[in-house]
Structures are given as structure tokens and as C-alpha cells.
Amino acid sequence: LIDQASGWFDQGGGDFKSVHNYFRKLIQKDLKPLIAKGLCGAVYTQLSDVEEEVNGLLTYDRKICKLI
To answer: How far apart are alpha carbons 59 and 45 in whole angstroms?
Structure first.
């Protein structure tokens, strides 16, 4: 399978649509309800937060896992 855009400007190529949507207060409220609408996968793009982005699986100091 080809992911042509990976969140950038999708020109209609590739085998599926890749959307980068950064949920804040987070998974239970916003992501899980999308399963009933056809969501079949989700990916964290970063293991931990970094100085410029706070969308990691873990906090910047890696002490807190945001999924728990």
C-alpha cells in the first residue's frame, strides 16, 4: 500500500487517505468514536513530546504515558 501524502497536501494519489489530526484531550473522547465511522488505524508520529510539539505518546521528560 502507498501513502503518498502522509498528512501533507493530498493530490489523490496512493491507496488511502492519510490525515494528520492532532487530538488534544484525547483518545477516549475524540478518537475512539471514529471507530464506528470506519477508522481502522491510528499512529503516534512521535514517541515523546519535543520542544516544538506536544503530540508524543510520552511527555517531554518521558515520565508520563498519555494513554494510561
So the answer is: 13
